[in-house]
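FAQ
Q: What does a multi-component entry look like?
A: The components come first, one per line:
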Amino acid sequence: GAVVSQHPSRVICKSGTSVKIECRSLDFQATTMFWYRQFPKQSLMLMATSNEGSKATYEQGVEKDKFLINHASLTLSTLTVTSAHPEDSSFYICSARTGGRGTDTQYFGPGTRLTVL
Amino acid sequence: AQKITQTQPGMFVQEKEAVTLDCTYDTSDPSYGLFWYKQPSSGEMIFLIYQGSYDQQNATEGRYSLNFQKARKSANLVISASQLGDSAMYFCAMREGRGTYKYIFGTGTRLKVLA
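Then the predicted structure of the entire assembly, as tokens:
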């Protein structure tokens, strides 16, 4: 159980275009999902926390107009990188919290590698 | 401020031997959770083990155990009987407080298991 999928796994786009990444919890309902960014050989950096039916909470320094997050249902959150530029190239990973009593463990998707030309 | 420190950027271990990956944390909140994740070269983050701050016993999951020393604020991961497939990046993470679900991650330790 606790499987999270992400789509696409890899995307290459031209500078100035927008890219949408989907994150789905496949076998559980996720009231909270998280979006992270990871640069090569570095740790994960939390970008935003996404709660179903409400606006995402962005971490300091993350542009909310640049990285649009929508959590339309208990199993789907999307991250849209608007007007992407080469510096947005990175590995984006989502996670979903199972919630309930216990660990509040986050289960991660397989990640999306974005390359902006 | 909350903080997670992993001081070992890289580690080697011989196959079938045990290895300890270090993690220290800093928090003033009495309620927190500690997690270990494995990230192979494919990039996915695989949950390994969890330790709650109020847990009396060290967590174990198969070949993984967490050496929790609360007074020292350390939560080291012990992998017994290392396998070649254990070669990966390992991250320690902390969730601080109740009602907040955010994690802080350490910088990671790259483990290489030698045949």
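Q: Is there any commentary attached?
A: Sometimes. For this entry: Chain A touches chain B at residues 2, 32, 34, 42-44, 46, 49, 91, 93, 95, 97, 103-111, 113 (CB under 8 Å).
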